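Budget justification aside, the reviewers requested a transparent look at the raw inputs and outputs of the sequence design task funded under Objective 1. We therefore reproduce one unedited record. The lines immediately below are the structure tokens for a 372-residue chain.
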């Protein structure tokens, strides 16, 4: 496992490719940010949107935004309404009751109260659970299907409502350096090639499942998107301060509810991540077992790039807290999927990458860190 020479991102992230200088794409990109003319980019954005405004006199909404009610979606929705002057339709793909947190439900209500029309898509909890279970047992990743539904429900509704413009926040290529999704600019039409969406739900299905049961998990075909003239735009490209801290403080000031207490013991530096879903803490822990990094590695890397902490401080935080997950989340997850703790750990351990993990003399697993 090699680490980026500038931040703490490892080369085990699927889809990542470091430069010859040993630097990750996100760090290479950040250097260019200081030289970017954001005024010119904003001009480019208004020009792009003008085209959509001009042609939509008959439509009720200018664009569609996928939201969870969390910090990013709150900031994004407000920006689109107040700064860009558009009327968005918000689409929320909601978790089943056993997965959705109280805070998540409150935050979605808060967002609607800020003055938006919203549609909530709720795939059948039975199918939801079966696909999650299959994802966990077959790929060690329960979230494969849930992420598919979160991403697919937005273009599906855009097509159904004849709204040709979808606005997302950050481009994963610039945020994490995942180049599989395509370009580093604003064009998000390559989103279908991301790790999550590419395979579609087929590898998660059981033989008795019918196509009409998994409708919400299937991303629209390219020809359907072309026919609807769908354009996906990453707003992050036009924005010089799209990041966790700014989005978090903006959204808290606008009524966002956050977690109590310190979260570094749960593998995150912030109390405002994935507020609607506690299982995600566990998913980050599994990612850590599989690839040697979790959410905190991403957060620390962002802070290093922003000049808020040194790389040494980042390394300390990663070693101490990355991949941590409280037992209560594991218990709740097992109860939801109706599996035993032994079954849970058997699956998780089968994905442990032995090239990067080894046991110490006390039988405790440790990562072989080689930051240089
Ligand atoms: Zn880096």
């Amino acid at each position: 496992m090699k680490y980026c020479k500038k931040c703490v991102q490892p080369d085990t992230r699927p889809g990542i490719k470091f430069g010859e200088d040993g630097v990750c794409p996100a760090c290479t990109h950040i250097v260019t940010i200081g030289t970017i003319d954001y005024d010119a980019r904003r001009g480019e954005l208004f020009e792009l949107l003008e085209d959509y405004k001009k042609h939509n006199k008959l439509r009720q909404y200018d664009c569609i935004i996928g939201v969870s009610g969390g910090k990013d979606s709150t900031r994004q929705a407000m920006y689109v309404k107040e700064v860009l002057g558009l009327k968005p339709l918000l689409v929320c793909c909601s978790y089943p009751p056993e997965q959705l947190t109280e805070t998540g439900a409150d935050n979605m209500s808060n967002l609607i109260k800020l003055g938006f029309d919203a549609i909530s898509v709720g795939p059948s909890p039975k199918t939801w659970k079966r696909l999650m279970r299959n994802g966990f047992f077959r790929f060690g990743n329960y979230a494969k299907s849930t992420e598919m539904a979160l991403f697919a429900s937005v273009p599906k509704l855009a097509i159904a409502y004849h709204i040709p413009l979808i606005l997302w926040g950050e481009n994963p290529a610039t945020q994490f350096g995942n180049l599989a999704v395509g370009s580093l600019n604003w064009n998000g039409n390559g989103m279908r090639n991301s790790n999550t969406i590419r395979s579609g739900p087929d590898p998660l299905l059981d033989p008795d499942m019918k196509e009409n049961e998994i409708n919400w998990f299937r991303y629209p075909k390219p020809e359907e998107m072309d026919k609807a003239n769908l354009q996906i735009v990453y707003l992050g490209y036009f924005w010089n301060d799209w990041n966790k801290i700014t989005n978090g403080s903006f959204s808290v000031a606008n009524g966002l509810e956050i977690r109590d207490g310190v979260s570094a013991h749960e593998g995150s530096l912030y109390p405002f991540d994935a507020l609607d879903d506690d299982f995600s803490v566990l998913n980050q822990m599994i990612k850590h077992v599989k690839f040697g990094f979790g959410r905190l590695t991403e957060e620390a890397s962002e802070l290093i790039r922003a000049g808020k902490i040194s790389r040494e401080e980042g390394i300390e935080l990663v070693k101490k807290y990355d991949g941590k997950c409280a037992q209560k989340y594991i218990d709740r997850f097992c109860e939801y999927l109706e599996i035993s703790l032994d079954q849970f750990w058997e699956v998780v351990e089968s994905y442990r990458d032995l090239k990067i993990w080894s046991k110490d003399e006390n039988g405790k697993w440790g990562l072989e860190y080689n930051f240089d």
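Residues 4, 6-7, 9, 23-24, 26-27, 301 surround zinc ion (CB under 6 Å). The chain has a mean pLDDT of 90. Computational costs for records of this kind are itemized in the attached budget.
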